[in-house]
Amino acid sequence: MSGDLVQFVKLLMKWQMHQCMEIGFEGIPGLCVAICTLESPLYEFLAHKGIALDELCETLSKEMKVSKVLVQSRMSSLKKANPIMGLRGSHLGITEM
User: Fold this and answer.
1) For residue range 38-85, what is the model confidence (pLDDT) as tens digits?
2) How far from the centroid of its chain's Cα atoms is residue 1's Cα?
3) What is the domain partition of the chain in residue ranges?
4) Please, are residues 71 and 57 in contact by the beta-carbon 8 Å criterion?
5) Cα–Cα nearest to 85, from 15, 34, 44
6) Which whole-number Å values give the CA distances from 55 to 47, 62, 75, 78, 79, in the listed order?
7) pTM higher than 0.70 for the full model?
8) Residue 92: DSSP 8-state
């Protein structure tokens, strides 16, 4: 990439990150916000229902020394409501110049 293009992309990334953080933290008052910096986020690989979820809650409750009901309640409260802005987050892809 040319020097001008690199500078432009860096400026665009800085602006984009600022805008995303502003929307994420100010645009959703009273709700939890998760910002995933890795692709794919870990929660996509965890159990979501059935026996696997039951076993996960059991294991977590033992590790954290809390009731299984508390773990289940907390996990169900953390479900995604609007997990993705745009097509796939707020990613920028430059495929051709």
Assistant:
1) 555 556 667 777 888 888 889 989 999 999 999 888 877 776 655 555
2) 30
3) 1-35, 40-79
4) yes
5) 34
6) 9, 11, 13, 18, 18
7) no
8) -
In the chain, % helix, strand, coil (3-state, to 5) comes to 55, 0, 45
Across 79-97, average pLDDT: 54
What percentage of the chain reaches a pLDDT higher than 90? 9
Q: For residue 57, how many other CB atoms are within 10 A of its CB?
A: 21
**Distance from chain centroid for Cα 52:** 22
Encoded tokens for 70: 């508390």
Place of tokens 């110049």: 97
Distance CA 92, CA 41 (A): 18
Q: Residue 79: its pLDDT value, please?
A: 64
Q: Which residue has the tokens 């432009």?
A: 8
Q: What is the CA radius of gyration of the chain?
A: 19
In the chain, the amino acid numbered 31 is L
